[in-house]
Specification:
heterodimer, A: 525 residues, 2 domains, disordered N terminus, B: 551 residues, alpha+beta, Arc Repressor Mutant, subunit A, 3-stranded antiparallel β-sheet, 16 strands
Chain lengths: 525, 551
């Protein structure tokens, strides 16, 4: 609480979080928006040398946005629900007038002529975009080490990675360089860095948030979602960015909701607020304190009255990579140096293409384009892409294994069916967002397969298109000393973000995992 | 498939060759270059005739029809032709990062209308796919098209191979349509310093055309001659124009035909090696290109150089009147098609199709049947049914009561000549001379009020709008004193006058110079100021001429 009696506040200010604190300060004129933004900008810049969270910062624009809000207030006008909320935007979301590279050197200097729908909605709600956060190039990576510009470091331990690909957003939010951020999640890119950095990440249902303006990695899997310091903050941001968009034909027609509405403040919770809720833990193999942290969280949920069972699913990882890389190989074709971005000099068209893409695209991106191109090639398409996508009666093949069973014939539809039927039985499914806590910088860079395996716990959800909230559930003691946050995914029914956020909020309030815990690198606003 | 094929493939600059006209294998030397073109052309024609009995060509056509929607296929940019380069562009059709396609509903409506008119099955559920290749005119590195589940499948068109091509009666044939699918167009390259890519210093790209909606219509390999292929192309264009879904303008690229052609000995079931020809901007050119290509391939077979016929794309050179190799196809191009994840499946319902079917205008084939039933000759039917506006005008003339045959003669004769001369469209014509006015005039001729000759004299006044909606035509001819003289007494008086004024000629006639009959006809017509009823006049004149001279 902010030291003010709750009954005088609008309902949306009932929980803690920098977002609401800042908005409240501005709304009650304790601070002007300009002061809030200046304050955050100074913190951002002070911590940036240690973290490298941002690729671009737009001070001038941020201050003019803040001035506009102060102007609105001076005139007695209504301010937006996110007025003065300082936000970072993952660099794969287009921002009009502000460089957008998706972490790729190929797009250095590219300034989009339009705002991504999610960004435009944030701006309309009064949010102040301070800059673009670092990421693995085109979202291809799980550590932010594949950025074309710089690695980002974990605020809890700067020898460690922040996760990826939305690592810049997660690190910036964890260190309070900004109040909240947008990320994108194709195979875990919001949830895994949220887990590594001890913040809340929401991967919405596919189609819940418009993809318009999101630099495409794998179109049928990509989702835009918030990363924030608290569940309530994430809910407030999601409420603004969700909803139908005529610019995205795959976006759902379902209207957005006020996701903060269902959040119940701690003092109003009963002793068994989860009585009657049925949860299932997805059996996974995890180590280094992750299993313990999850076990403690599950115990806590049971104490709140939830009924917790065990379940298991097949492994969608191979199918995920076939689909993601196939689509990526196509989506990245447009970076040819002809219309925008960097162009290499050459005597002839083919060499211009070759040099441009060789110079501009990193090795991990090149590897994924090659694999995707291979999977879509004549003679391989049926064996890979088609089988990964659809149910088939064909036997054999290793794109899909179900736990405890013989290898089954593949696919995305199977994942959807399995998870869908489990969610008819349970209110939510629980599992870690990653097998380990944040690993050391450089630890996995030489082994791409080890990096891919780290996505094991997150990709099924993208194949199924379901929503999840990832939030801190505990800490893992490191053998080398120090503790690192561990995140837990709560997976819900399609378009069930409201229920999920409510559940996550109850856990967050009652378990108080983050109480008195701050990252080593942190800006006290 | 796809307009894009020209752009695909390796080593674009290196593989293009200079045009050459020779039957020598593939890219051989231009041995016959010094000889006059028309002689070479003649020789080729003779060869073609000689081998016609022994060989058969198999021809299939891929037609790209630009659908005349206001905006592009997947964004809201205008799809008009001729705008300032790169003025009708936006982040979506330029393939900017993060942009997504949104399907144009009017494109689907027009394609469904076209599909139904092609007698095809329209799928209630089809999907879009990405066809992938790199070329500077293709902004996204892929073209959104339809691959394995097209919008329309299994249709046919009836074509009439015109009489002048078959010597006598036109032959009616049904050509199968394999499929018709939706796709987007690519941009246009403009090569600086040269007419083509080879030799140019730089190339500029105009993306105005990028994303313009196309319907690709793929025919069965049902055609055997250039004339059939040209008739097929013309019928497709006619159908699209009757439907109002495309202007079919080949010069502006809103209709493009790629011809696939192979030759085999008659009686052989297997197809020969297929060659693709592009770059023909009229049906006439298409026919000549095909006839050239048939002759070229037959000659190679005759010379024992069958291996020299290779899978390749050849361009028609209008100046040289020959095809030349643009690009060899090394194996099958792999476009790595896969379903477009940015667009949901295209799902239509039966009510939508029914509604479009109900709105179907009369099609060229139906017009032809209707006109043939009126007793018009096939030639007249083909001329009249060629354009929708002519049909509309002619039908309005008929509806106003004009009998078909004279209406045909007037519309196809003086009126059509006038329109050509004045470069006037038929809708504009209707504003000057209402079809009812023409019908009224035809009526006056038919009932003998005026002669056909007077009709021709009256026509300019009608074309100047003096006939109004038709009711003023009779008054006009009356006030101008143009009404035909049919009264035998009046005609006899005129004849008498002429005979007595020319006693010398009369005497010569009666002494055995029957050729002077024409002189008297002319003189009498002149005297009547052209108003004499010719039949009646002739009868009376002959009567008087042949009467015994008064004693």
């Amino acid at each position: 609480m902010f030291g003010m009696p709750t009954h005088t506040m609008p309902r949306r200010f009932i929980t803690t979080g920098s977002l609401n604190a800042a908005r409240l300060q501005i709304a009650t004129r304790q601070m002007s928006a300009t002061e809030v933004v200046r304050n955050y900008l100074s913190g951002l810049r002070r911590l940036e040398p240690q973290l490298n969270s941002f690729i671009a910062v737009d001070v001038e624009h941020a201050l003019s946005q803040a001035a506009a809000i102060d102007n609105q207030l001076a005139k007695g006008e209504e301010i937006g629900p996110l007025a003065g909320v300082v936000m970072g935007i993952k660099d794969n979301l287009c921002t009009q007038g502000l460089q957008t590279t998706a972490g790729s050197k190929e797009l250095r200097g590219y300034v989009p002529p339009y705002d991504a729908t999610a960004v435009a909605r944030l701006r309309a709600a009064g949010a102040v975009v301070v800059g673009k956060t670092n990421m693995d190039e085109f979202g291809m990576g799980s550590s932010c080490e594949n950025s074309g510009f710089q690695p980002t470091f974990n605020p809890w331990d700067t020898d460690r990675v922040p996760g990826g690909s939305s690592g810049g957003s997660a690190a910036a939010v964890a260190a309070n360089q900004c109040i909240a951020a947008l990320g994108s999640d194709t195979g875990g890119s919001i949830r895994q860095p949220a887990s590594f950095c001890g913040v809340v990440g929401v991967k919405p249902t596919y189609g819940r948030v418009s993809r318009n303006g999101l630099v495409a990695y794998a179109s049928s899997l990509d989702c835009v979602g918030p990363i924030a310091q608290t569940v309530a903050d994430a809910a407030a941001v999601l409420s603004v960015i969700a909803g139908p968009d005529s610019a995205d034909a795959t976006c759902s027609q379902r209207p957005s909701e006020d996701f903060t509405e269902g959040l119940v403040p701690l003092e109003q919770l009963s002793s068994k607020p989860l009585a009657g809720r049925r949860l299932a833990v997805i059996q996974e193999t995890s180590g280094e304190g992750v299993a313990e942290a999850l076990a403690a969280a599950i115990k806590h949920l049971q104490e709140l009255g939830a009924e917790v069972s065990l379940t298991c699913f097949g492994v969608g990882l191979p199918a995920y990579y076939v689909i993601a890389l196939s689509e990526a190989s196509s989506n990245l074709s447009r970076y040819d140096g002809v219309r925008y971005g960097q162009r290499a000099e050459a005597d002839e068209l083919r060499s211009m293409y070759g040099k441009t893409r060789h110079n501009g695209l990193g090795s991990e991106v090149a590897r994924r384009i090659l694999m995707g191109t291979y999977a879509l090639s004549a003679g391989y398409y049926d064996a890979y892409y088609k089988r990964a996508q659809q149910a088939s009666s064909q036997k054999g093949g290793a794109l899909w294994y179900s736990c405890g069973e013989m290898p089954r014939p593949l696919v995305r539809t199977l994942v959807q069916r399995e998870m869908g039927s489990a969610l008819q039985q349970y209110d939510a499914l629980l599992c870690p967002a990653a097998p380990t806590a944040a690993y050391r910088v450089g630890e996995k860079t030489s082994d791409p397969l080890a990096m891919y395996k780290g996505d094991l716990m997150t990709v099924n959800l993208n194949l199924a298109g379901l929503p999840a909230v990832c939030l801190p559930c505990g800490f893992a003691e490191q053998p080398s000393g120090g503790t690192l946050p561990v995140g837990m995914q709560m997976i819900g029914r399609a378009f069930g973000e409201g229920d999920l956020l409510q559940l996550a909020h109850i856990f967050e309030q009652t378990a108080a995992v983050m109480a008195l815990r701050r990252p080593a690198v942190y800006f006290e606003a | 498939m796809g307009s894009a094929a020209a752009a695909a493939g390796g080593g674009v600059a290196a593989s293009r060759q200079q045009p050459h006209c020779t039957f020598a294998a593939g890219g051989g030397m231009c041995r016959q270059r010094h000889r006059p073109h028309h002689r070479r052309w003649q020789q080729q024609q003779q060869q073609a005739v000689r081998y016609k009995a022994a060989y058969e060509a198999v021809i299939g056509i891929e037609t790209h029809v630009q659908l005349g929607t206001k905006t592009k296929a997947f964004c809201s940019c205008a799809s008009e032709f001729g705008a300032e380069p790169n003025s009708n562009v936006c982040p979506v059709c330029l393939g900017h990062p993060g942009t997504l396609p949104v399907l144009n509903g009017d494109m689907v409506h027009k394609a469904v209308l076209a599909g139904l008119a092609l007698n095809a099955r329209v799928s209630l559920e089809s999907k879009f796919d990405r066809k992938q290749y790199f070329y500077p005119d293709l902004p996204k590195g892929y073209q959104i098209s339809q691959y394995d589940v097209p919008l329309c499948e299994g249709g046919w068109v009836e074509v009439v191979v015109p009489p002048e091509q078959t010597g006598g009666q036109g032959v009616v044939r049904r050509i199968g349509v394999t499929r018709a699918h939706l796709e987007e167009d690519a941009g246009k390259l403009v090569h600086g310093g040269a007419a083509s890519l080879s030799g140019s210093d730089y190339s500029l790209v105009d993306y105005n055309r990028a994303g313009v909606p196309l319907l690709e219509i793929v025919s069965e390999p049902d055609m055997r001659t250039g004339a059939e292929a040209a008739a097929y192309g013309a019928e497709i264009r006619r159908i699209m124009r009757f439907l109002g879904v495309s202007d079919g303008n080949m010069a502006e690229g809103s209709m493009r035909c790629d011809v696939n052609i192979s030759v085999r000995p008659r009686g052989q079931a297997a197809f020969g090696t297929k060659v693709e020809i592009k770059n023909m901007n009229s049906f006439n050119a298409m026919q000549r290109a095909i006839d050239f290509e048939i002759a070229r391939q037959v000659q190679l077979l005759e010379d024992g150089q069958a291996a020299a016929i290779v899978q390749e794309t050849r361009l028609w050179d209008e100046g040289q009147q020959c095809t030349y190799s643009m690009r060899k196809k090394e194996g099958l191009a792999d476009y790595r098609y896969f379903p477009e994840p940015d667009l949901p499946a295209l799902v239509l319902n039966q009510a939508y199709l029914d509604e479009i079917q109900a709105s179907m205008p009369e099609l060229p084939r139906q017009v032809r049947e209707r006109y043939l039933a009126l007793g018009l000759s096939q030639y007249d039917v083909l001329v009249l049914s060629d354009e929708r506006d002519v049909v509309a005008y002619f039908d309005a003339v008929l509806a106003a009561g004009a009998p078909p045959k004279p209406a045909t003669n007037w519309v196809m004769g003086d009126v059509m000549a006038y329109c050509k001369e004045a470069r006037l469209g038929w809708d504009a014509l209707a504003e000057r001379m209402a079809p009812t006015a023409l019908a009224e005039m035809i009526g006056l001729i038919e009932d003998g009020t005026i002669s056909g000759k007077i009709g021709k004299e009256v026509l300019p006044a009608l074309l100047a709008g003096e006939g109004g909606s038709g009711s003023g035509v009779r008054a006009m001819v009356e006030t101008r004193g143009l009404v035909q003289i049919s009264d035998p007494a009046a005609l006899a008086a005129i004849v008498d006058g002429v005979l007595s004024a020319n006693p010398k000629q009369l005497q010569q006639y009666r002494e055995g110079k029957p050729k002077l009959q024409g002189f008297f006809v002319g003189a009498v017509m002149k005297e009547s100021k052209g108003r004499a009823n010719p039949a009646e006049l002739n009868r009376i004149l002959m009567e008087q001429l042949n009467a015994s001279p008064p004693a």
